[in-house]
Each structure stands twice: as structure tokens, then as C-alpha cells.
Amino acid sequence: MNFTFRILLLLSFLCLSRSSASEKSLSLEDSCSAKDAEDGKAGCGCGSNALKRDLPASNPHPHAKQASLEDDESIVSDESGLNDKLSQPEAAKDKEDVIRGMKLIPGGKFTMGTDDPHFPADGEGPARPVIVDQFYMDETEVPNADFAQFVEDTGYKTDSEKYGNSFVFFGQMTEAQQEPVKESVAAAPWWYNTPTASWKSPEGTESDLRDRQDHPVVHVSWNDAVAYCKWKGKRLPTEAEWEFACRGGAENQLFPWGNKLLRKGGQHGANIWQGDFPLNNTGEDGFKWTAPVDSLPPNKFGLKQMTGNVWEWTADYWNVHHQKTKEPVKNPKGPKSGEEKVKKGGSFLCHKSYCYRYRCAARSQNGLDSAASNLGFRCAADVEA
Question: Which of 6, 33, 161, 341 lies 20 to 30 Å (CA to CA) from residue 238?
């Protein structure tokens, strides 16, 4: 990483683009400004189409069609009978196996969203009454060890493996790992489009999961998350379920543990960014990048790291237009179709000064095949009547 590049990032926080494989030259763009960063609008650049991958001409992608809830909830290709393996999950022989490692969320009425949105364009508001039925939720984000078992049992290949690349935050990479990179994201140059990056090689070349078996699996798309949950006899939570679970039964609460950033006793509640983004993460919460999935205290529902660490996929299609109703809406599921899915919780890259999305009401979105080094998931499951 050359000195000029660092200085430009630090001083201007403008959108840069990294070009040509040989010179990796820099150019300034006017689509992002320092004012945006100060207002908290720029974010870490991992939302919407910023991390969209081009479809490789030599490798037609099985999920290219627009998805709809009229289709099967799990949009997975039937390669080598994979759907048969997923519909008869090895890891979920009975209900006790399904709910192992999950918490029963009691359900009830709560206020979803907020009337004081930090990012109005994200559709954080308005605050509206919602009722969700009881359900189960994974206590933690899905760790690498569990996802590895899924791959071993089914032979599943993730979207990142099919594409041959994924997006990695540059600070996580060594100089040797950065060398094969040909481009970064113009609107967020700290995101490197990294060859061979995937769930099992999180930083691409010369990276693996040693000492990270208990960290959240990353570089998983929405499609990948749905496939895993189906194999476990589970599903992804709806956005309403996720937000209800995040709040831990409390009304109008910013974070899973309360309204102050630090918990009682000065303890950190989430793995987020401390320091100057994107060059210096001081790791005051004990972690610079991902943290083990059970490393921080749970909320009142017993759920750990509902905010920070990694973003979490939900079942809902993205929509920013919500109606404020007097009567509560029961078990909302969002639009029936779309091109992007809602993700919740923020990640280790979030900081209040630019990406204040580690609040329960905050939300963002990505395409169904998007993946990055700060994006994971946890599963939910129905309670049998």
C-alpha cells in the first residue's frame, strides 16, 4: 500500500479507483465527499450495489434470474442432487437437533423501526407496531466450523467460489495477499475485489481458517445462507423477527443491551470500529476484525453479537417505503420479489461517525449473490404448533 494512497484516503476520504494491474494507479472521483463521511452517509461502502460482482462470461451463474417468494424460499441450483441433500438434512434428524444452540424467542408486540432515523434513505422509519409469533433463533452467528460441516456433508459450493472472487477489506490483508488484486471498488477503495477469496480463504491467497473455526463464516451470499439453513432444517429470520430478537424485549432501545454504547461497567457490547476509518482500528473492544461468535455477553433473549462483528442476512427483500399503522401488522415478510435482500446488525467496520448501523433499527441491503469479509448470518426456526 503506497504512501500517497494512504494520505489521500486519510485527508480527503474521497472515492478513489484502483486500476491497471501493473501500475495500480489512482484517480479521484466526485461521487463521494468528505462531507458525506462527516454526516455519516458514506458508510463503509458495503451496501447496495457497491460490492456487486460482474457475471463471468465463462461461468453462467445459477441464480441469475430475479428471485421471487413465489419460488422455493431456498434458491439453490440442483447440482449433483444438492436439493435432495438439503431437503433431507443430515444435521437435523429431529426437532431437538434443529433447535440445539438456539434460543426460544417468545414473540409479541413491539415497535419496529424508528421515528428518529439516522439514515432516512435506508427506510429506518417510521416507527410502527408489529407482532411476531414465537420462534427460535441461533444463539450466535454461524461459525466457520459449522459451515465447514455443511460443505463436507453436501459438497456445496458458495457463490464466491463459483465467481472466483469476493470483496475483502484491505486492512485485513497482508501485502502478499494484496498483490494479486487488480481492482478496488470506486466508491469505497478500501474494498478489494480479491481473487480466490471465499469462506475458507477469507483474505484470498495464503489465508485459511486456522485459529478462526469459532469466528463467523463470511463471504457467504444470501443464496449460501438459505442453503445452509435449509440443510439444518431451519430458515433465515424475517427482518421483523430479527429486529424483535435484537431488542431483547425492550421498547425503543438502540442496541441489544440498552441505549449507551458501553454496557454497565464500561464493557463493550459490540465488535465495531474504534479509531480513524479506514486506516487505524485501535481494537479497543478486543478485536480488530471478526471476533469469535460467543465472545461478547448476550442480550436478554440470550443472543450474542446481534450487532457488530458481521452483518446478518434476513429473509426479506429490500424496501424503504413503510406505512405507519395504528393496528399492528402480524408477521410481516416484506415485498414478494426484488433484487436485493435486507441485512441487519452492522459489522466490525461500523463507527458512529460514518456508519452508525449497529443499532437494532438500522438496516442495509445487498444483492442475493453478494458477499464480503464482513457479511455472515444466523438462522431461525419455527415453533411447531
Answer: 161
